[in-house]
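SECTION: protein entry
WANTED: fold as tokens:
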Amino acid sequence: MFIRNFLEAELVTEQCHRGIGTINHTSIYKKEDFDTKIQFINYVEIPPDASIGFHRHREDEEVYIILEGNGIMKVNDEQTRVKPGDILLNKPHWGHELFNDSNEMLRAVVFEVLK
């Protein structure tokens, strides 16, 4: 049985996809943990005024589940406000970024699956 607790995991702090500032993150599960085409499940924390920079995907889909905080998600040329409970889908070959424009930490779970 594979049970991992992302709230107890050690976080890495670094810039992500040439975004603004740094984010905190950890890999909950990696590609080798799966028997399917899931590439990873990560937990991320984006501090105020920081971002995951705009980047494009190839043959994969990525999903963001917003747990806490608010921000702006840009997918291709469209921007939308995000809040707790929002689930965002990024299709193959789309580009996206996530910016925390609030005064509180934005927390999310992110997973990616190959097409």
About this structure: The chain has a mean pLDDT of 96.
